[in-house]
Amino acid sequence: MTFLWVLLFTAFSGLVAYVKVNYIYWYLLGISQFKTNFLWGNLWHLKSYHHTEIIQKLYDTYKTTQVIAGTYIFAKPVAVVLNLNVMQRMLFEDREKFQHQTKWTDIPDQLSKMLTARLLQEAKGSSHLAGAIEVKLRASRNFCVNVKEIVNHFTLDLLGLALLSVDYKSLTQSDSDFYQKFMEHIQKKPFSVKWQIFRNVYRRPFTNDFNDIINLLIPRLITIIERRQNLSLKPEDFLSILLNERNEGFSSQPTKDIAKQVIHLLTSSFQASVSIINCALYELAKNKQKQILLSQEIRKVMRCNNYQLSPDVLKELIYLKLVIKETQRLYPPLTFLQLEALADYAIPKTIITLDKGNIIYIPVQAVLHDPEIYAHSEQFQPERFFSWFQQGKHSLSFLCDENDPHNGIVSSSVQAIVSIALIDLLTKYEFSLCDKSPKKIEFSKYNFIKFPTNDIYLNVKAL
Length: 463
Hints:
By secondary structure, the chain is an alpha+beta fold. It has helices at about 1-20, 25-30, 50-60, 85-95, 110-125, 130-140, 145-165, 175-185, 195-200, 210-230, 240-245, 255-285, 290-305, 310-315, 320-330, 365-370, 385-390, 410-425; strands at about 30-35, 70-75, 75-80, 100, 145, 335-340, 345, 355, 360, 430-435, 455-460.
């Protein structure tokens, strides 16, 4: 019995010693860090899966004095980059020296234009968002509408048609079985956010974000692919483009991997698009003059193009681009980007060297909300992105352009979906706040891609 107690005491002492040494890891490298509890570290700072709180606190504390600051996710050391020049170097010039762990899909970015074309094509023939709102208004006789619910249905239907030639009909059948199951997985809440973080810190990061959706969709998608191959079917959708790439030797991915990549694209595009559309409508409802400017531009350009959508038409909508960019700045779907050093990495013009395997965060939201980069950073001001306002700004301060420089195809699909939705709505309706409108938009602490949790009710009035 005495031996057992000695063994337990020795094991516990060893664990405490390991944790204490681990929690001074950044001090030993000469990198600033917050004081940590000798046993629990930063545990009580881990409040959300997207780490908004702890990253923002580090950025605000050390951005003026340090190039990099350190923190810990449980016992895992994490470096948070605070200098824009270092961020740019890591993301671009030294890109090959890091594994980019927040890249959602391996589908080549060169296919972005094809996906955008498919989305625009399906938008012409699919159920229109504005039409769904009209039905809602007629049924309820109430001008205050939950736009979030309708945007969810529209986005899923459009992605299903463009990617798979599958019409989920959720916009016309809001209680459809597939939509309910899909949203259950998107809005799933583990019993503890700290447990969710722990599981993902000690396995390949963020793969678990997609596992539930993959398990739901993979059997259906493999069945679709096999049926196409057996019957030599070639529908005009993005899945056919990927299969054609493989058949012509440009890709060697097995069927299951292609199916997973399409699911990744569907899920990440859905979450980011829904978030940006809802946030844009909310901000436009609060800022009536900006909404009028955008509505006038959309109606003028669409009238000149016979109300036909195309990539060229999207290029003409300058103010629409600014509105989307400003919405992404205020409400970035990705709070941070995660890299892993593939070898020891010396930070240029410093004495700091990061070890191989170190996890590095690029604090996207903190940069985009920095008042020294964006004056009145908490205000919705699309005009700030006019070219003459951008002169003299650091080239990486536009992280809101894509939120992730290595997710080109996801970014392209999101830009197209958001543009289609806003064009369809603002051609026919104007939006304003109502009694049920939220004071602010709340986001789930369980999603890595930030996703609104509260209903977004707005007054809707036909133009």
